[in-house]
Design a protein that fits this description.
Blueprint lengths: L39 E4 L2 E4 L11 H18 L5 H12 L3 E2 L3 E3 L2 E7 L7 E5 L7 E4 L10 E8 L5 E8 L5 E7 L4 E10 L5 E3 L2 E6 L17 E6 L8 E4 L8 E6 L5 E7 L5 E7 L8 E4 L6 E7 L2 E6 L7 E6 L9 E4 L5 E8 L2 E8 L2 E7 L5 E5 L6 E6 L6 E8 L2 E9 L4 E6 L10 E9 L5 E9 L10 E4 L16 H6 L3 E5 L9 H5 L7 H16 L8 E6 L1 H12 L6 E5 L18 H4 L5 H10 L13 E7 L8 H13 L6 E6 L10 H19 L6
Parallel strand pairs: 34-35, 34-36, 36-37, 37-38, 38-39
Antiparallel strand pairs: 1-2, 3-5, 4-5, 5-6, 6-7, 8-9, 9-10, 10-11, 12-13, 13-14, 14-15, 16-17, 17-18, 18-19, 20-21, 21-22, 22-23, 24-25, 25-26, 26-27, 28-29, 29-30, 30-31, 32-33, 33-35
Helix pairs in contact: 2-10
Length: 709
Amino acid sequence: MKKIFPVLIVAIVLFSCNQTTNNNSVMNFEYPDTKKEEVVDDYFGTKVSDPYRWLEDDNSEDTKTWVVQQNKFTHNYLNKIPFKEKIVDRLTEIYNYERYSVPFKKGGKYFFYKNDGLQSQSVLYIQDNLDSEAKILLDPNKLSEDGTIALATISISKNAKYLAYSIARSGSDWNEIYLKNIETGKMMNDHIEWVKFSGISWYGDGFFYSRYDAPKKGDEFTKVNENQQVYYHKAGSSQEQDELVFENQEFPKRGYQASVSEDESLLLLSEWESTSGNGLYFKELNKKDSKVIKIVDGFENDYVFVDYIDGKMLITTNYQAPKYKLISVDINNLAKENWVDIIPEKDNVLTACDIGNNKIVSYYMQDAHSKVEIYDYAGKFINEVKLPTVGTTGGFSVKKDENIAFYKFTSFTMPGITYKYNFEDNTSEVFRKPKLAIDLEGYETKQIFYKSKDGTKIPMFLVHKKGIKLNGNSPTLLYGYGGFNISLTPSFSITRMIWLENGGVLAIANLRGGGEYGEEWHKAGTLLQKQNVFDDFISAAEYLISEKYTSSEKLAIQGGSNGGLLIGAVTNQRPELFKVALPAVGVLDMLRYHMFTIGSAWATDYGLSTNEEQFNYLYKYSPLHNIKENTSFPAVLVITGDHDDRVVPAHSFKYIATLQEKHSGTNPVMIRIETKAGHGAGKPTKKLIEEAADIYSFTFFNLGVDINY
């Protein structure tokens, strides 16, 4: 399935529980000193103080010293929690299992990823056929001693002669592209820098990619990203020789994602300005001096190219279809009135389409879980693919003219199992199944629906041990996101098993702002309706308490990125409702978020403080600006990374400094700043275990939980 533009990535890390004594009341919290400066902004006559703005400068010695002091304070607290090492040991034990990706085929060969268990990064393998010996093609664990260099993207040429891959250093969004000759096994001299929010799309013996101009030294992780350009790189050449294919200097904040049709006859350019809505352009590659032609511009709707068949492009879109449909567009007759609906909008959300066995594979979402249906090219329904249970499939790995596909299926208590699907008889069989040191049969998942403040029905998944007693005393972890059309569907996390093993309830709320019910559901949690997201989440907490799953003293809440904004906002609005709050890499300064890196792209969901009406709304819920003096807050552990160049760490720095200043209770409020780490992607396994152990220890201790190890 094709991704057309970057979206916020959510790193979900979850935890566990039971009954121990919380000794915070006898701990003396002397938070590190954070200096204040006189900085005041005037927004339409409203004076807004920003005394910790100096923390926005991640290169200053003062900020570096502050980071060291905060980390020392936090780790001094965490390392005194008596059961932390037991959690580290258990996480290390259960993490150590083989994990495979879905195999995919190029040039008659198969490729897949495998992690032996505790490897920092998964290794890319190649094999001639499914029964032949698999050989290592690329081992990213050899790229750095500490595992902080991760593979970001790989792309194999159609003839399987070349491997192009991009790496990310220390979790940054900045990528570098390298090439390897698959036939000889030797690395090539090609090296491309300053790539960001880009795919690698092969055409012949070269590929299209997107990059920015090199930033000034020191501005790499904070400067606004502007003027993205699309280039073509010929294998074996230097970056300086790359051909500029497309740029748009009139609109510097727009970005362009390049992709190539399966038959390599069309170049597609998806134009994005935010995380929703895109324009779409194409260029005929088999015609000399052909121009880039606009199919549709503007950002009111989404358009995702699926394939090019018999002179017509298949595109999924929410144009006049909030739950999406599949349309056909003739490249010689592009006017909207000539578009043809192949698969019209249905009750469930169409999330994507693939082509396999000369049929259309359509992925639907029904109440936040997967359905798969097969159609012919005319849009006639053929059959539904029977999935193992309520869960999520990431899509088929399949060739257009072959009758065998592979897909991975997962749920909250089912690790990623790879299935082999046969189009001819509509059957699936297990291809690879991981072996875990955990008995997963003792847990159950159910989906309930609760009412939000305005009466809207909200779905929520609940996962826990079978036979749970509803006595209001179960430690409960409530996770939410609620933004950017991103849906929270069932998924497996090995670290969540720590939570479940110790009698915890895991609750995943499908808030408005996400994509669970299409574009209308998304829009209902954006701009001047963002409070709906917070109300949905607060109502989820109230439901869990009223139904006696838990109590306020046993309730922890968590969210990352846009979900970090959610946790910060609801903690301010209802501090008495929660015992522990875990905002990770959060968007916490809603007045200045657009001034850093790619932040301006989030304006369609949030609005901008440069607009008076939107400023007034943002100012009312911005987590940084709504921390009240002399308030007792829950125990708060903020998570961020020093190389996060998506949601810059200044958000978390300024937020925790303000919270430490104004918090009047005995609960700890602190920050954990991971070094050589970014927004979450690409973290080595060792760092993932260390971070999870710190989060679980903090949560257990502050909920008064006794772990079972």
